[in-house]
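User: Predict the structure for this protein chain, please.
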Amino acid sequence: MSIWLKLSALFRGGAHEGAQAVVDANALRILDQEIRDADNAQAKARDDMAGLVARRRMLETEGASFAEQARKYEASARAALAKGDQALALEVAQRIADLERDAGTRTTQVAELRAAEDKLRQVVATTDTKIEALRREIEVVKVNESVQRAQSAVVARTSGAGSSLGSAADSLKRIKERQAIREEKFRAHGELEDRRTGADLDAKLRQAGILPGEAGAQDILARLSAPAAAPMPMIEAPRLQIEGPEAVPVRRDEA
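Assistant: Here is the predicted structure, written as structure tokens:
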């Protein structure tokens, strides 16, 4: 007998666990529906409160009407007494008593309805505050749920791609090493070429000021700022006079 009880407990426990798993998987949906149910209940409570207010106002109107009629009949009763009609005055007095009793009953009912109305209004307001607070908490829970789902997806993808990321990092490291080796080769080739042509030695001599280098901006400015040298006087070259042969006098007899 105890075995069957344990099996029954096992089945009931499994059913409970399955039902609880379904509830947990749909917790947010259930919360939304519970909020909607609470809103519907609040709407029904407001309708009931509106009916209560309407009933209370009707009773107030009836009580005021009974009181007004009683005051009118009081004048009629005084008039009957003035005429000496005791029977009519007694009948009017009975009517006044009935009206006052009805007005008193309405007053009591109005007080009871007003107290119930105030209590119901307080309950509705308190419930509205609780529903709004719960709705805000549900919004926060929804946001947290979305964030955690996104984080879970990122973690799953990251863990699945861990080996790929490690391989990519190794490949990147090897590429950088090859580029560094290639840069060193280019630099060594340039140094050898300069040594072969003597360009490195010329550069050292130029830095030491032994070889003239390119004029810099400061050198050009200093040259432009130096006073201009006085022009050298022009030396006139001596003029050479070329004398011709002396004229030989001619005799007349030889002419």
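Residues 27 and 180 are 58 Å apart (CA to CA).
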